[in-house]
Design goal:
seven-stranded parallel beta sheet, 17% strand, six-stranded parallel beta sheet, disordered N terminus, 371 residues
Length: 371
């Protein structure tokens, strides 16, 4: 289903992201707003206000990478909050993505009747902290008219740990435009491997994401190092790169390839036989959905909403975080059964995480809040 298939749209919705950068939550906000724009108009009980609009509290580290409206220079600066309040005054509903947008949106909407929807993007057991920080986060979430969790486990945590009412939460998963992640052809596979300098005829596993502590890429390198004739393509950059390069040189020289930051995951997916995700914490990682749509099976950590995307033994393998041997065994399994597992992964992702499917559910939620 394409983005034009949403049955009703999100006209009049304001989508608030932390920064204009190419990261998961921000990219999804832009994609969702586009999908809602392409659908029919949201029928508000009060008034029609136009098309969905995406705004960022601040620019990203590389400038305005998403080309959205920037509200200020500081996430909680007075000028930023005033600009957000003005933007919200022209909307029927505000959708906030990520922890920094929650307090900014709550404070900007004080004294107004505009409903706020908060999209919880990570594992609430992890990101909300403990003690005062957890109490403050829960208090802010209760100010929202509704909360969207991206997998059922997150919704359960919001109820049991944060005291949010179950009827205040709807589970709507991450959505990805399927037309952007087609199954790569043989020629595209050959071209991608050539572009990355990968040897022809070898098995390639891709790890796509930041080279940062929570991604635990050390485990990915260690797991691949135990496999004969398997190459690891690392697409991304971050603070751990220098240490990871030293580890790669010691563990598997000439078989670990650092590609740096890419404009998207498509080329890395085309080059890979399978995807490896070794994170110690995640929400609902979009890269696993992208891989599934491209018919690439995954071996992934059992964290966050990963099990919603990777069906263990059916579309890939789920492994305990930090288990080098478990990841190595998982890779042996998926590389042996890559074609059927990849095909099953694509079917699963098309049915559950294609953007048109997800946008329809969002449109229904937003329309219900503005009747």
């Amino acid at each position: 289903m394409g983005t034009n298939d949403a049955e009703s749209g999100g006209g009049g919705s304001l989508h608030v992201i932390t920064a204009s950068q190419r990261r998961g939550a921000e990219l999804f906000a832009v994609d969702l707003a586009a999908a809602l724009t392409n659908g029919a108009t949201l029928r508000s009980a009060r008034t029609e206000r136009g098309k969905p609009r995406v705004v960022a509290l601040t620019e990203g580290p590389e400038g305005n990478a998403l080309g959205v409206d920037i509200l200020g220079t500081q996430p909680y600066g007075l000028a930023t909050l005033r600009a957000l309040r003005r933007a919200a005054a022209e909307a029927d509903v505000v959708v906030a993505y990520g922890s920094k947008t929650l307090p900014a949106s709550v404070f900007s909407l004080l004294g107004t009747s505009t409903p706020l929807v908060y999209r919880n993007i990570g594992d609430p057991q992890v990101w909300s902290g403990k003690g005062w920080r957890r109490w403050r986060t829960a208090a802010l979430m209760r100010r929202a008219a509704h909360i969207v969790a991206v997998w059922p486990g997150a919704a359960d945590t919001l109820v049991k740990v944060h005291g949010i009412r179950a009827d205040q939460i709807t589970v709507i998963p991450r959505g990805v435009p399927a037309d952007q992640y087609p199954v790569p052809s043989r020629l595209e596979r050959v071209a991608a491997r050539k572009a990355f300098g990968l040897p022809p005829g070898q098995t390639v596993v891709a790890c796509i994401g930041a080279l940062s502590p929570e991604k635990d890429v050390t485990t990915a390198i260690s797991a691949v190092a135990t496999l004969d004739n398997v190459h690891l393509l690392l697409a991304g950059d971050g603070p751990d790169r220098a240490a990871l390069e030293r580890h790669a040189y010691a563990a598997a020289p000439d078989r670990i390839h650092f590609a740096g930051v890419l404009p998207g995951s498509q080329q890395a997916l085309a080059a890979a036989d399978a995807i490896l995700l070794t994170s110690r914490t995640e929400g609902m990682p979009g890269v696993l959905i992208e891989a599934g749509l491209a018919a690439r099976p995954a071996v992934a950590s059992d964290v966050g909403g990963v099990r919603s995307i990777v069906l263990d033994g059916r579309t890939g393998v789920v492994v305990k975080p930090g288990d080098v041997d478990g990841f190595a065994d998982g890779l042996r399994t998926v590389l042996t059964e890559a074609a059927p597992l990849g095909a099953a992964a694509r079917d699963h992702c098309l049915a559950n995480f294609e953007l048109g499917v997800v946008a329809t559910r969002w449109a229904e939620l937003l329309e219900g809040l503005t009747r």
